[in-house]
Structures are given as C-alpha cells and as structure tokens.
Amino acid sequence: MDISRAGDVGTFSLEPAWEMSGMDHVQLPAGAVLTEPPVPLWALVLEGELTLEAAFEAQSLAEGDAVLIDARTAHRLTASERHEESALVVADLRMAVPVRRLPSPLVVRGFGIRHGGVMALVTQCPLERACRPTLFAASYGNLIGAAMTTSWQEDEGGDAGPPDEAVTAVVAAVTARPAEPWTVEGMARLVHLSRSALGERFRRALGRGPAEVLREIRMREARRLLADPSRPVEYIASAVGYGSTAAFSRAFSSHHGVAPQAWREPSPARDAQRGEKQPGRRGEPRAEQDGRLHAAGVQERAS
C-alpha cells in the first residue's frame, strides 16, 4: 500500500516518538520500595541493586541496567538488602506516538555501558522533575527511548520487519488531525480495510486497538495544549476532537486521574500524575507497601 495516498499522511512525520516531562535521582535504603505513581516509568540503576517484580515474575537489576514500564503494568522496585543503599534515575518516559509494540517491562542489561553518552547526560545533567515539557526534555526522551528500543532489538530480535503501513498511515493521520471526528470505521476507510481487519492489524503491531491509540494521541495533544495557560479548556476540548467540554473532561480525568484544569494547576494530584516529587514518597519499607501493588499499579487504562 502506498501510504502517500492515504489522505495527506505521506508527508507527515511521526517524530518525536517519545515524551518525557522530567527525571529525578533517587536514593533507596536497603529493603525500601520505590513509590512511583502508576505512570510510565523508566529507571536506570546507578549504584547497588534492585529487585523488579512485574508480569508475574521477579528479576534483579544490577548497576547499569535500565527498565521501561508502561502505565498498565503492575510493578514494584525494591532495593536489595545486600547493599546499604541503592541509587537510580527515574523518569516518566512514554512513547508519545505509538509506532511499535514494546514489551512491558522492557529490561536492558548493561544500558550504561552500551549507551555511554546517554548515561553521561542523565547522570551529569539531570532535568528538574518539576519542569514543564520543553524541547530539551523532548530531546532527552527521544535519546533514551531510541537507546532502549535499539537495545531491545539487538537483544531480542524485536524488530521483525518494517512497520505495518496501514497502521502507520492511520496513526500519522490521527496525529496530524486529532480534532477530526474519527471513528474506527473512518480510520479503516482511510486505508481501505474493514473495521475488524484494521483492529487486528493494530493489535498485532501495537498491542492495542485503534480506539485506544486514538485516545492516547488525543490525550498527548491535550497535555501539550494545557501547558499553555492562555488556552481555555473549552478550546482544547474542540482541538482534540471532543464535542463538549464535559465529554473531554470525563475522558481526560479517566486517563490521568485528574481534571484538565487540575492538571495545569499546582496540586498534589497533578504532581503525582506527572511524577513530580512528593516528600516521603520515594522509598518506604516493603512491608508497608505489601498488599497495595495490585491497587496501585494495575490500572488498565485506556491510555
């Protein structure tokens, strides 16, 4: 299929593919649990050792190892008892425009050695966690995301071939025009497929259906627009394809856990979803967190 014939999507770029608002350095005493909110999480072990519990298994993360975990995966990171303290870098890294299916958790062994330049950036020039998304933050996100993806492909042979052209065309069109009243049927017509055929190709390529990807793209654009305080929520609702402010607010709140206006205003709820610092929340004894892993991490969001 010639993607250039699918409307005007042939000239549209899907880059940058990754989004990140900030990163933070964390110190965890032996046995303490990293208490991150249930948002996409990237972590790099600087010193010591961590135990990652996710996807019904536990594995150790040594110094230099990195892991990427999406918002839908229940997980727990615990500092090893064999070290007095463990240090790591954490960031709220997410694939902003879905272009490929990645495992979660995605563990890259020896990330620090394999990607020395990225390692130097995140250890010597960390971003402030509370900063607004900027081009500088986006460049960090793209560097880290590209390094993680490349390493995964090298280790697992994850790149089975070129991206699905139909999926790429639809994602590009929706990303370019999020305000349009998209339906799954309309997306399927764009690439001359049936609704069911398009759904199967999306699930095979990205691990989620067209409607879920549409929501992800619209929410990403909403977050970008909300960063500008001069834009009213009513305008943003229309700009991302919702017929009313109430419908947009419900969708945004369901996706992020806070309303659009609360997202742009300083508040503990907004900071928690963005991954900003919350005193006393970085590390706590494992016993205090037992029984809360499912409730805190397993939020099968429509992301």
Overall 3D shape: globular
Tally of distinct domains: 2
The fraction of residues assigned to DSSP E strands is 15-25%
Order of helices and strands: EEEEEEEEEEEHHHHHHHHHHHEHH
Which class of secondary structure composition applies to the elements?
alpha+beta
Helix content: 40-55%
The whole-angstrom Rg is 20 Å
- Provide a count of the helices: 13
CATH top level assignment of the largest domain: Mainly Beta
Largest sheet: 5 strands, antiparallel
Low-confidence stretches: 1-13, 129-133, 267-281, 286-303
Lateral strand order in the biggest sheet? 2-9-4-7-11
Q: How confident is the prediction overall: mean pLDDT? A: 79
Q: Superfamily at the CATH H level of the largest domain?
A: Jelly Rolls
How many beta-strand elements? 12
Distance between the termini: 29 Å
CATH architecture assignment name of the largest domain: Sandwich
Region (Disordered): 259-303
Domain HTH araC/xylS-type: 168-266
Protein name: AraC-like DNA-binding protein
Keywords: DNA-binding, Transcription, Transcription regulation
Outline the secondary-structure elements.
Layout: E1 18-19, E2 23-29, E3 32-34, E4 41-47, E5 49-54, E6 57-62, E7 66-69, E8 75-79, E9 85-91, E10 94-95, E11 106-108, H1 111-114, H2 116-124, H3 135-156, H4 165-176, H5 184-190, H6 195-206, H7 210-226, H8 233-239, H9 245-256, H10 260-264, H11 268-274, E12 283-285, H12 286-289, H13 293-297
Antiparallel strand pairs: 1-10, 2-9, 3-12, 4-7, 4-9, 5-6, 5-8, 7-11
